[in-house]
Amino acid sequence: MTSEVGTDTAAQTVFGVVDSHADTLHVAVISDNGGHLADTEFTTTAAGYAAALAFLDAHGHVSAIGVEGTSSYGAGFTRAARSHGHPVVEVNRPDRAERRRIGKSDPIDAYAAARAALSGRASSVPKDDTVVGIRALHNAARSAVKARTAAANQITHILFAAPDSIRAKYGRLRGTDRIDALARLRPTGDAVHVAVLAALKILARRVKELTAEHTALTKALDSKVTVHNPGLRAAYGVGPDTAAQLLITAGGNPERMRTEAAFAALCGAPPVPASSGKTNRHRLSRGGDRAANAALYRIALVRMAGDSRTREYVARQTAAGRTKKEIIRLLKRAIAREMFRCLTTMVAVPAIADLRPLRQSKNITLTAAARHFGAWPATVSTLERGMRRDDDLAHAYRDWLQAA
């Protein structure tokens, strides 16, 4: 620990920074002209947070505190600092060039981050805690999918090398048929057959359990994101997983993103110049939050498949000579603009709760309604249940039902 605290600390303005880890926090203080004042280490406990804040306050008026990992290791300290009225900014880790030049240690990283906070390079407002529950459910659902995929792949690989009788019986089955059959089997035969069949049965039951777990988590996640932002969830092509990812990326306080261009950059969807010589074009960005970028990509694919306006736009761009990659890039940028509007403003969602009772009161089947509008029955069903948003179809459907 180093310290150069003067006798008149109350009058000076200081900047603090926290280099956060799983068990410890390294806190550094610099003056408003960049001079190193002190640094020391504290534990990641309530007592450690209180001691760290007292340490910062002892050196003068704290203008701002920069924290690395405000949504991970530094989340606890961020909450404590905010509760004491200290402004907190998010600090990125030092760039690699600087680390190669001056080396790496907790004090070095802390002072580098403090200079970033002082200079204004670190000015992002941390995310608030209102999406913590959504993040937890989203992570659990994603891990269930990954574990289920791993178990299903293990079943496939075991069947590749299984005895011929087992491979002939279960290798030709696919999907849920294979999983259901393996979950019901009773291992019999010699030692090899019993071992292989027992492993397949256990893995199949694991797949079924993880499927049920993922279904329950998705239902809870859907409820959470719909309550948090009904306009976002109701947007065409935005499902529970996609809506959750965009909320996690933006945070519960999306006003921290000043413009929709900033949100597009955060999602890795800005147009990046890629021109050379006679070629004048843009390419997809390879930066930003790749999970948010994947969410925009999924929305684009859904709209390309089922949204009439998007399909017309794709046809126009294809006729103009653009490739599929270029069209998807344009779509992702436009979708990012729409998602930013949903995240930062309250978007009114037209009521659809009356559609199904109205149809049933007229004794009209889903098939008849779908046939009238030239759509699939599933399209009308998801519209009635609020799983699909199509305002034009909803208005036309209501008018048709009322006139029937």
TrEMBL record:
<feature type="domain" description="Transposase IS116/IS110/IS902 C-terminal">
    <location>
        <begin position="236"/>
        <end position="314"/>
    </location>
</feature>
<dbReference type="Pfam" id="PF02371">
    <property type="entry name" value="Transposase_20"/>
</dbReference>
<dbReference type="InterPro" id="IPR047650">
    <property type="entry name" value="Transpos_IS110"/>
</dbReference>
<feature type="domain" description="Transposase IS110-like N-terminal">
    <location>
        <begin position="18"/>
        <end position="159"/>
    </location>
</feature>
<dbReference type="InterPro" id="IPR003346">
    <property type="entry name" value="Transposase_20"/>
</dbReference>
<dbReference type="Pfam" id="PF01548">
    <property type="entry name" value="DEDD_Tnp_IS110"/>
</dbReference>
<protein>
    <submittedName>
        <fullName>IS110 family transposase</fullName>
    </submittedName>
</protein>
<dbReference type="InterPro" id="IPR002525">
    <property type="entry name" value="Transp_IS110-like_N"/>
</dbReference>
